[in-house]
Amino acid sequence: MTKTDKQEAVNKQEEQNKKPKSKVGAFLKKKNIEISAKRYFIDAMGAMANGLFASLLIGTIVATLGQQLHLQILIDIGTFAKSVAGPAMAVAIASALQAPPLVLFSMLTVGTAANTLGGAGGPLAVLVIAIIATELGKLVSKETKIDILVTPLVTICSGVLLSMGIAPYIGSAASAVGQLIMLATELRPFMMGILVSVIVGIALTLPISSAAICAALSLTGLAGGAAVAGCCAQMVGFAVMSFKENRMGGLISQGIGTSMLQMGNIVKNPRIWIPPILTSAITGPIATCIFKMEMNGEAISSGMGTCGLVGQIGVYTGWVNDVAAGTKAAITPMDWLGLVLISFVLPAVLTWGFGWICRKLGWIKEGDLKLN
Questions:
Q1: Which of 97, 118, 233, 275 is least enclosed by beta carbons within 10 angstroms?
Q2: Phi first, then psi: what are they for 144, rounded to 5°?
Q3: What local confidence, expressed as pLDDT, does residue 211 receive?
Protein backbone atom coordinates (compact mmCIF):
# COMPACT_ATOMS: atom_id res chain seq x y z
CA MET A 1 0.00 0.00 0.00
CA THR A 2 1.40 3.35 -1.05
CA LYS A 3 1.60 6.39 1.19
CA THR A 4 -1.30 7.97 -0.75
CA ASP A 5 -3.46 4.86 -0.27
CA LYS A 6 -2.73 4.85 3.46
CA GLN A 7 -3.71 8.51 3.75
CA GLU A 8 -6.96 7.87 1.86
CA ALA A 9 -7.74 4.98 4.20
CA VAL A 10 -7.12 7.19 7.23
CA ASN A 11 -9.35 9.91 5.78
CA LYS A 12 -12.17 7.41 5.12
CA GLN A 13 -11.89 6.10 8.69
CA GLU A 14 -12.09 9.64 10.08
CA GLU A 15 -15.19 10.31 7.98
CA GLN A 16 -16.77 7.12 9.28
CA ASN A 17 -15.98 8.12 12.87
CA LYS A 18 -17.67 11.48 12.34
CA LYS A 19 -20.90 9.88 11.10
CA PRO A 20 -23.54 9.21 13.76
CA LYS A 21 -23.86 5.51 14.59
CA SER A 22 -27.66 5.52 14.95
CA LYS A 23 -30.79 7.29 13.79
CA VAL A 24 -31.03 8.94 17.20
CA GLY A 25 -27.47 10.21 16.89
CA ALA A 26 -28.19 11.52 13.42
CA PHE A 27 -31.32 13.30 14.63
CA LEU A 28 -29.50 14.89 17.58
CA LYS A 29 -26.73 16.04 15.27
CA LYS A 30 -29.31 17.53 12.91
CA LYS A 31 -30.84 19.41 15.84
CA ASN A 32 -27.43 20.59 17.05
CA ILE A 33 -27.86 18.83 20.38
CA GLU A 34 -24.48 17.92 21.80
CA ILE A 35 -24.64 16.10 25.12
CA SER A 36 -21.27 16.97 26.62
CA ALA A 37 -19.72 18.40 29.76
CA LYS A 38 -18.17 21.22 27.74
CA ARG A 39 -21.45 22.46 26.35
CA TYR A 40 -23.47 22.14 29.56
CA PHE A 41 -20.92 22.95 32.26
CA ILE A 42 -18.52 25.29 30.48
CA ASP A 43 -20.43 27.00 27.69
CA ALA A 44 -23.78 27.17 29.51
CA MET A 45 -22.33 28.22 32.89
CA GLY A 46 -20.14 30.86 31.30
CA ALA A 47 -23.15 32.25 29.45
CA MET A 48 -25.22 32.20 32.64
CA ALA A 49 -22.60 34.32 34.37
CA ASN A 50 -22.76 36.83 31.50
CA GLY A 51 -26.53 36.96 31.83
CA LEU A 52 -26.21 37.60 35.56
CA PHE A 53 -23.60 40.26 34.94
CA ALA A 54 -25.80 42.08 32.42
CA SER A 55 -28.78 42.14 34.79
CA LEU A 56 -28.40 41.52 38.51
CA LEU A 57 -24.79 42.61 38.87
CA ILE A 58 -24.82 45.76 36.77
CA GLY A 59 -28.20 46.64 38.26
CA THR A 60 -26.79 46.35 41.78
CA ILE A 61 -23.85 48.57 40.90
CA VAL A 62 -26.04 51.25 39.28
CA ALA A 63 -28.59 51.15 42.13
CA THR A 64 -25.81 51.46 44.73
CA LEU A 65 -24.35 54.41 42.86
CA GLY A 66 -27.79 55.98 42.81
CA GLN A 67 -28.18 55.49 46.55
CA GLN A 68 -24.82 57.09 47.26
CA LEU A 69 -25.49 60.03 44.93
CA HIS A 70 -29.16 60.28 45.94
CA LEU A 71 -30.26 59.97 42.31
CA GLN A 72 -33.60 58.18 42.02
CA ILE A 73 -33.21 57.68 38.28
CA LEU A 74 -30.15 55.47 38.84
CA ILE A 75 -31.94 53.54 41.56
CA ASP A 76 -34.85 52.90 39.18
CA ILE A 77 -32.54 51.79 36.37
CA GLY A 78 -30.74 49.40 38.71
CA THR A 79 -34.04 48.01 40.01
CA PHE A 80 -35.29 47.29 36.50
CA ALA A 81 -31.99 45.60 35.58
CA LYS A 82 -32.05 43.39 38.68
CA SER A 83 -35.65 42.35 38.03
CA VAL A 84 -34.77 40.54 34.77
CA ALA A 85 -31.98 38.35 36.14
CA GLY A 86 -33.88 35.11 35.52
CA PRO A 87 -34.79 35.83 31.87
CA ALA A 88 -31.29 37.18 31.18
CA MET A 89 -29.67 33.99 32.48
CA ALA A 90 -32.03 31.70 30.57
CA VAL A 91 -31.65 33.54 27.27
CA ALA A 92 -27.86 33.58 27.69
CA ILE A 93 -27.83 29.82 28.32
CA ALA A 94 -30.06 29.14 25.32
CA SER A 95 -27.81 31.31 23.17
CA ALA A 96 -24.77 29.29 24.29
CA LEU A 97 -26.63 26.12 23.31
CA GLN A 98 -27.21 27.67 19.86
CA ALA A 99 -31.00 27.67 20.17
CA PRO A 100 -33.12 28.81 17.22
CA PRO A 101 -34.99 32.12 17.60
CA LEU A 102 -38.36 30.80 18.80
CA VAL A 103 -36.68 28.72 21.50
CA LEU A 104 -34.42 31.61 22.48
CA PHE A 105 -37.29 34.06 22.95
CA SER A 106 -39.39 31.50 24.82
CA MET A 107 -36.68 31.25 27.45
CA LEU A 108 -37.73 34.62 28.85
CA THR A 109 -40.73 32.93 30.46
CA VAL A 110 -38.78 29.86 31.51
CA GLY A 111 -36.06 31.93 33.15
CA THR A 112 -38.59 33.99 35.08
CA ALA A 113 -40.33 30.88 36.42
CA ALA A 114 -37.15 28.98 37.32
CA ASN A 115 -35.46 31.91 39.05
CA THR A 116 -38.57 32.91 40.98
CA LEU A 117 -39.46 29.41 42.14
CA GLY A 118 -35.82 28.50 42.83
CA GLY A 119 -35.57 31.11 45.57
CA ALA A 120 -32.06 31.69 46.92
CA GLY A 121 -30.73 28.95 44.64
CA GLY A 122 -32.49 30.40 41.61
CA PRO A 123 -29.41 30.61 39.37
CA LEU A 124 -28.76 26.86 39.66
CA ALA A 125 -32.42 26.13 38.98
CA VAL A 126 -32.27 28.35 35.90
CA LEU A 127 -29.13 26.57 34.68
CA VAL A 128 -30.63 23.08 34.94
CA ILE A 129 -34.11 23.89 33.69
CA ALA A 130 -32.99 26.23 30.91
CA ILE A 131 -30.71 23.51 29.51
CA ILE A 132 -33.51 20.93 29.49
CA ALA A 133 -36.17 23.27 28.09
CA THR A 134 -33.81 24.57 25.41
CA GLU A 135 -32.91 21.09 24.20
CA LEU A 136 -36.58 20.02 24.17
CA GLY A 137 -37.45 23.12 22.19
CA LYS A 138 -34.66 22.38 19.72
CA LEU A 139 -35.99 18.84 19.26
CA VAL A 140 -39.35 20.06 17.91
CA SER A 141 -38.10 23.20 16.20
CA LYS A 142 -39.14 23.30 12.50
CA GLU A 143 -40.53 19.77 12.65
CA THR A 144 -44.12 20.86 11.95
CA LYS A 145 -45.92 23.27 9.64
CA ILE A 146 -47.13 25.21 12.68
CA ASP A 147 -43.68 25.70 14.16
CA ILE A 148 -44.55 29.20 15.37
CA LEU A 149 -47.03 27.57 17.79
CA VAL A 150 -45.41 24.22 18.58
CA THR A 151 -41.86 25.34 19.39
CA PRO A 152 -42.68 28.07 21.94
CA LEU A 153 -45.48 25.92 23.38
CA VAL A 154 -43.15 22.97 24.03
CA THR A 155 -40.31 25.18 25.30
CA ILE A 156 -42.43 27.29 27.65
CA CYS A 157 -44.65 24.49 28.96
CA SER A 158 -41.75 22.13 29.61
CA GLY A 159 -39.72 24.87 31.26
CA VAL A 160 -42.52 26.19 33.47
CA LEU A 161 -43.71 22.71 34.47
CA LEU A 162 -40.15 21.75 35.38
CA SER A 163 -39.83 24.99 37.33
CA MET A 164 -42.99 24.21 39.26
CA GLY A 165 -41.91 20.63 39.90
CA ILE A 166 -38.19 20.78 40.66
CA ALA A 167 -36.98 24.40 40.90
CA PRO A 168 -37.83 24.73 44.63
CA TYR A 169 -35.89 21.53 45.38
CA ILE A 170 -32.90 22.52 43.25
CA GLY A 171 -32.92 25.95 44.87
CA SER A 172 -33.15 24.49 48.36
CA ALA A 173 -30.31 22.05 47.69
CA ALA A 174 -28.04 24.76 46.29
CA SER A 175 -28.88 27.08 49.14
CA ALA A 176 -28.21 24.31 51.68
CA VAL A 177 -24.76 23.62 50.19
CA GLY A 178 -23.98 27.33 50.20
CA GLN A 179 -25.18 27.68 53.78
CA LEU A 180 -23.05 24.70 54.80
CA ILE A 181 -19.95 26.24 53.23
CA MET A 182 -20.66 29.59 54.88
CA LEU A 183 -21.33 27.98 58.28
CA ALA A 184 -18.15 25.92 58.01
CA THR A 185 -16.23 29.09 57.19
CA GLU A 186 -17.69 30.82 60.24
CA LEU A 187 -16.73 27.88 62.47
CA ARG A 188 -13.34 27.15 60.87
CA PRO A 189 -12.30 30.42 59.23
CA PHE A 190 -8.64 29.44 58.82
CA MET A 191 -9.02 26.08 57.08
CA MET A 192 -12.15 27.02 55.14
CA GLY A 193 -10.54 30.32 54.21
CA ILE A 194 -7.80 28.34 52.51
CA LEU A 195 -10.13 25.85 50.82
CA VAL A 196 -12.68 28.34 49.51
CA SER A 197 -10.02 30.78 48.33
CA VAL A 198 -8.00 28.13 46.50
CA ILE A 199 -10.96 26.30 44.94
CA VAL A 200 -12.85 29.38 43.73
CA GLY A 201 -9.59 30.95 42.51
CA ILE A 202 -8.79 27.85 40.48
CA ALA A 203 -12.33 27.84 39.08
CA LEU A 204 -11.85 31.45 37.98
CA THR A 205 -8.84 30.56 35.84
CA LEU A 206 -10.31 27.33 34.48
CA PRO A 207 -12.69 27.62 31.51
CA ILE A 208 -15.68 27.41 33.85
CA SER A 209 -17.47 30.22 35.64
CA SER A 210 -16.50 30.89 39.25
CA ALA A 211 -19.08 33.70 39.26
CA ALA A 212 -21.84 31.30 38.24
CA ILE A 213 -20.76 28.81 40.91
CA CYS A 214 -20.84 31.47 43.63
CA ALA A 215 -24.20 32.75 42.39
CA ALA A 216 -25.69 29.25 42.23
CA LEU A 217 -24.60 28.53 45.81
CA SER A 218 -25.50 32.03 47.06
CA LEU A 219 -21.97 32.23 48.47
CA THR A 220 -21.69 35.34 50.64
CA GLY A 221 -20.43 36.30 54.09
CA LEU A 222 -16.94 35.22 55.18
CA ALA A 223 -16.93 32.47 52.55
CA GLY A 224 -17.69 35.10 49.91
CA GLY A 225 -14.78 37.18 51.21
CA ALA A 226 -12.46 34.18 50.90
CA ALA A 227 -13.72 33.60 47.36
CA VAL A 228 -12.91 37.21 46.46
CA ALA A 229 -9.42 36.72 47.89
CA GLY A 230 -8.82 33.61 45.79
CA CYS A 231 -10.01 35.26 42.59
CA CYS A 232 -7.86 38.34 43.18
CA ALA A 233 -4.82 36.12 43.85
CA GLN A 234 -5.24 34.55 40.42
CA MET A 235 -5.99 37.70 38.43
CA VAL A 236 -3.63 40.20 40.02
CA GLY A 237 -1.07 37.45 40.64
CA PHE A 238 -0.82 36.34 37.02
CA ALA A 239 -0.91 39.96 35.84
CA VAL A 240 2.09 40.95 37.96
CA MET A 241 4.01 37.69 37.60
CA SER A 242 3.80 37.86 33.80
CA PHE A 243 4.53 41.60 33.50
CA LYS A 244 8.02 40.90 32.15
CA GLU A 245 6.54 38.98 29.21
CA ASN A 246 3.27 40.85 28.63
CA ARG A 247 3.92 44.41 29.87
CA MET A 248 1.07 46.86 30.42
CA GLY A 249 -1.36 45.18 28.04
CA GLY A 250 -1.08 41.90 29.89
CA LEU A 251 -1.30 43.64 33.26
CA ILE A 252 -4.63 45.20 32.34
CA SER A 253 -6.13 42.28 30.42
CA GLN A 254 -5.43 39.85 33.25
CA GLY A 255 -5.65 42.21 36.23
CA ILE A 256 -9.09 43.62 35.47
CA GLY A 257 -10.06 41.17 32.73
CA THR A 258 -9.48 37.48 33.41
CA SER A 259 -6.68 35.13 34.39
CA MET A 260 -8.29 32.56 32.08
CA LEU A 261 -6.01 34.01 29.39
CA GLN A 262 -3.19 31.97 30.95
CA MET A 263 -5.04 28.65 30.56
CA GLY A 264 -3.14 27.73 27.40
CA ASN A 265 0.18 28.38 29.13
CA ILE A 266 -0.94 26.36 32.17
CA VAL A 267 -1.62 23.36 29.94
CA LYS A 268 1.92 23.67 28.54
CA ASN A 269 3.54 24.16 31.94
CA PRO A 270 1.26 23.55 34.98
CA ARG A 271 3.99 24.85 37.34
CA ILE A 272 3.17 28.45 36.42
CA TRP A 273 -0.03 27.95 38.42
CA ILE A 274 1.86 27.30 41.67
CA PRO A 275 2.52 30.96 42.67
CA PRO A 276 -1.08 32.26 42.44
CA ILE A 277 -2.47 29.13 44.10
CA LEU A 278 -0.01 29.46 47.01
CA THR A 279 -0.94 33.13 47.24
CA SER A 280 -4.66 32.33 47.43
CA ALA A 281 -3.94 29.83 50.21
CA ILE A 282 -2.39 32.71 52.19
CA THR A 283 -4.74 35.59 51.39
CA GLY A 284 -7.87 33.49 51.98
CA PRO A 285 -7.33 32.93 55.72
CA ILE A 286 -5.96 36.48 56.12
CA ALA A 287 -9.29 37.71 54.74
CA THR A 288 -11.37 35.47 57.02
CA CYS A 289 -9.29 35.49 60.20
CA ILE A 290 -7.61 38.90 60.36
CA PHE A 291 -9.77 41.33 58.41
CA LYS A 292 -13.05 39.41 58.70
CA MET A 293 -13.77 40.50 55.14
CA GLU A 294 -17.28 39.57 54.09
CA MET A 295 -19.07 39.67 50.77
CA ASN A 296 -22.59 40.77 51.65
CA GLY A 297 -23.35 42.18 48.21
CA GLU A 298 -24.61 39.98 45.37
CA ALA A 299 -23.24 36.43 45.51
CA ILE A 300 -22.05 36.57 41.90
CA SER A 301 -19.54 39.25 42.96
CA SER A 302 -17.76 36.67 45.14
CA GLY A 303 -16.51 34.90 42.03
CA MET A 304 -15.51 37.96 39.99
CA GLY A 305 -12.30 39.05 41.72
CA THR A 306 -10.91 42.24 40.20
CA CYS A 307 -12.77 41.76 36.89
CA GLY A 308 -14.05 45.30 36.33
CA LEU A 309 -13.46 45.72 40.08
CA VAL A 310 -16.76 43.89 40.56
CA GLY A 311 -15.55 41.96 43.62
CA GLN A 312 -14.48 45.15 45.36
CA ILE A 313 -17.70 46.95 44.44
CA GLY A 314 -19.62 43.96 45.80
CA VAL A 315 -17.79 44.12 49.15
CA TYR A 316 -18.46 47.85 49.34
CA THR A 317 -22.13 47.32 48.45
CA GLY A 318 -22.32 44.82 51.30
CA TRP A 319 -20.89 47.37 53.71
CA VAL A 320 -23.48 49.92 52.61
CA ASN A 321 -26.31 47.40 52.98
CA ASP A 322 -25.09 46.35 56.44
CA VAL A 323 -24.84 49.95 57.63
CA ALA A 324 -28.34 50.65 56.30
CA ALA A 325 -29.68 47.53 58.03
CA GLY A 326 -28.00 48.47 61.31
CA THR A 327 -25.84 45.32 61.46
CA LYS A 328 -22.68 47.36 60.90
CA ALA A 329 -21.95 50.62 62.70
CA ALA A 330 -19.81 52.21 59.98
CA ILE A 331 -17.26 51.55 57.26
CA THR A 332 -13.90 51.70 59.02
CA PRO A 333 -10.31 52.35 57.88
CA MET A 334 -9.59 48.71 58.78
CA ASP A 335 -12.25 47.63 56.28
CA TRP A 336 -10.59 49.64 53.51
CA LEU A 337 -7.11 48.44 54.48
CA GLY A 338 -8.21 44.82 54.33
CA LEU A 339 -9.93 45.25 50.97
CA VAL A 340 -6.90 46.91 49.39
CA LEU A 341 -4.39 44.44 50.83
CA ILE A 342 -6.43 41.33 49.98
CA SER A 343 -7.46 42.52 46.52
CA PHE A 344 -4.28 44.15 45.22
CA VAL A 345 -1.19 44.44 47.39
CA LEU A 346 -0.76 40.91 48.77
CA PRO A 347 -1.63 39.12 45.50
CA ALA A 348 0.91 41.26 43.64
CA VAL A 349 3.73 40.92 46.18
CA LEU A 350 3.25 37.26 47.15
CA THR A 351 2.72 35.92 43.63
CA TRP A 352 5.72 37.85 42.33
CA GLY A 353 7.82 36.40 45.17
CA PHE A 354 6.67 32.82 44.61
CA GLY A 355 7.15 33.33 40.88
CA TRP A 356 10.72 34.53 41.43
CA ILE A 357 11.47 31.38 43.44
CA CYS A 358 9.93 29.18 40.73
CA ARG A 359 12.05 30.93 38.08
CA LYS A 360 15.19 30.38 40.16
CA LEU A 361 14.30 26.69 40.50
CA GLY A 362 13.87 26.45 36.75
CA TRP A 363 10.19 25.58 37.04
CA ILE A 364 9.17 28.69 35.13
CA LYS A 365 11.23 29.68 32.12
CA GLU A 366 11.40 32.73 29.90
CA GLY A 367 8.29 32.96 27.75
CA ASP A 368 6.19 30.47 29.76
CA LEU A 369 3.75 33.25 30.70
CA LYS A 370 3.68 34.99 27.33
CA LEU A 371 0.15 35.65 26.05
CA ASN A 372 -0.46 35.15 22.33
A1: 97
A2: -130, 170
A3: 83
- Complete DSSP assignment for 190-209: HHHHHHHHHHHHHHHHTTS-
Bridge partners (DSSP) listed for residue 295: 221
Q: Which residues sit opposite 221 in a β-bridge?
A: 295
Assigned domain for 339 exists: yes
Q: Are residues 168 and 202 in the same domain?
A: no
State the DSSP string of 164-190. Answer: HHHHHHHHHHHHHHHHHHHHHHHHSHH
Tell me what the mean pLDDT of segment 54-69 comes to.
Answer: 85
- Helix count and strand count (H, E) for the chain: 19, 0
In this structure, are 110 and 227 located in the same domain? no
Q: What is the pLDDT of residue 228?
A: 96
Q: Which of 145, 175, 205 is the last residue of a domain?
A: 175
Q: What is the DSSP letter of 295?
A: B
Could you give the CA distance from residue 55 to residue 83 in angstroms, rounded to a whole number?
8
Instruction: Round the average pLDDT of the chain to a whole number and report it.
Output: 90
Domain that holds residue 110: 33-175
Give, in order, the Cα–Cα distances in Å from 365 to each of 239, 242, 271, 272, 275: 16, 11, 10, 9, 14
Residue 338 to residue 177: CA distance in whole angstroms = 27
Q: How confident is the model at residue 4 (pLDDT cuts 50, 70, 90)?
A: low
As a whole number of angstroms, the distance between CA 272 and CA 39 comes to 27
Handedness of CA 309, 312, 315, 318 (dihedral sign): negative
Distance CA 359, CA 273 (A): 12
- Tell me which of 15 and 262 has the higher pLDDT: 262
Once rounded to an integer, what is the mean pLDDT over residues 42-67? 85
Give the number of residues written for the chain. Answer: 372
Q: Are residues 115 and 39 in the same domain?
A: yes
At residue 22, the 3 state secondary structure works out as coil
State the pLDDT at residue 15. Answer: 61
pLDDT exceeds cutoff 80 at 18: no
